[in-house]
Amino acid sequence: MVAPRLSPATVPPRRQTAFWLVFGAIIALAGQQVWQRFAPEKQGDPLAISLHAFEKQNRLTVFSAQLSPVVTSEDERLMGVLKSRQVAVIPARVDYTLDLAKLDASAMRWNEEQRSLSVTLPPLELSRPNLDEGRAQYLREGVWITREAQAKLTRDNTVVAEKLAAEEAGNTVLMGLARESARQGVRQNLAIPLQVAGFGDVKVEVRFAGE
């Protein structure tokens, strides 16, 4: 039996802003390297420049969700004489990442006439839910709950909480927020190396396969 789940809360905007500032700084450093490799007088291949901006990133966390699954487990012992029940609220964090190693030239298209770069991102990957059992809240019911019964109730709740957190993280709303965060971040930061390389104000269009 599973009790209704609490509504998930995304990472505060301030944290996301700080993340993209840090990511922007990394891209700016990459831009300096691009400037050295592709000076304005020999602008070079815009696709190669864009790929170079990501080549040292490997995996990029674009979004995180804080979830609070509410779960219930039950236990019976001595042929049903001893019955116990535990309700738990266990905070969990799930990260949404991009595997930048999967980005190659085939995922990018440069339009010289429109001065635009189109990028197709690989699917988002969700981390295994990280349960914070140190902040979990428990409500136990039973006349007498043995140590063994309590340990089993906690284990069962942990298993269910991880499963529910993974399901909740994949819902339409959170996936939409994560994809939009990825699009915005990649769009904003891919433009920097191209500007540094002398391509001017480039329009960067970012989407996921199938969109």
Please, could you describe this protein's structure?
- With 211 residues, this protein is of the alpha+beta class.
- Helices cover 39% and strands 28% of the residues.
- It contains 4 helices and 11 strands.
- The strands form 3 sheets. Strands 1, 2, 5, 8 and 9 form a 5-stranded antiparallel sheet that branches. Strands 3-4-10 form a 3-stranded antiparallel sheet, with helices on one face.
- Helix 1 packs across helix 2, helix 1 packs parallel to helix 4 and helix 2 packs across helix 4.
- The longest helix is centred in the first third of the chain and has 25 residues.
- The chain is rod-shaped.
- The protein starts with 8 loop residues before the first strand and ends with a strand.
- The N terminus is likely disordered.
* Integer average pLDDT: 81
Helix/strand structural class = alpha+beta
Count of distinct strands: 11
Report the biggest beta sheet as strand number plus sense, adding barrel if it closes.
Answer: 5 strands, antiparallel
- Residue stretches low in confidence (pLDDT < 50, at least 5 long) are 1-15, 34-42
Rg, alpha carbons:
24 Å
